[in-house]
Please model this.
Amino acid sequence: MGEFRRVPAMEDPYEYVERCPWKIACEPFRVAPHVWYVSGNTWVGAYLIDTGDGLILIDTFEVRALYLLTEAVRKAGFDPGEIKLILLSHGHADHCGGLKALQEMTKAKVYMSKEDYEVKKTHFDRVFFRPDGQDFEPDGFYSDQKTIELGTIRIRTKLCPGHTPGTTSFFFWDEDGEGKRYLCGMHGGAGTGFLSDEYLDDYGYPRWFRQRFVDDCKEMASWPVDICLASHPNMTNFLSGVNWEDPSDYQGFVDRGAWRNFMLERAEDAERLGRGETRAR
Ligand SMILES: [Zn+2]
Model:
């Protein structure tokens, strides 16, 4: 994987989305036996799970460049119309901005956290991060006590307040044709940019969000995740796992240490932020 596929440094990645989305375009690739990276771009992740009874999409990227996602789904060999379930990691426009358009296109059921839904009702511009985001209604809310099931896939959610009040992480087992199982995990919002006192106060969120973020990361670090799905590829050098010679080869993503290291590094980052030793990022 060459460095050229990374997003170049830019003040605001939305500049790419609005002015030149092709510069962050990314071909789809497989990350687990039945899971494909289909955001169509290198900035924000989105995952398509083939459950054998319809498709699940985790996160929807941004509406202005949604063609990158729908094209990626097709290039991966799937029909966007077969998406039956859409799960949102958190209410920021780079992850849910494309939701309304996809909801209309696919008629898929949509699930999100109750917490981010409440923020959406009262602070639409904030939960969407952009005042011109397109509103939508979900079909249901997550419960950490109840798995989300479709076909062969059962997804466990974990509420991880911090990045937003309702940031939700996802965990599910995926099995290959020979019976080998892989635990896939995705932290729903690992960026610490919203965990500084300044941000939390400005958004009216409690400061304990930061400690909760730290505690959740440390707890999840011990979970035996085999495949760490990145909500933003640059946070984990995720694209280095791609075999571009054969994008259906997911073995480059099987790495139990990657998840643990990522969680501990995120926790440490937030702790440093709390001690005033680093800036939010
Ligand atoms: Zn976010």
Q: What stands out?
A: Residues 65 and 137 are 21 Å apart (CA to CA).
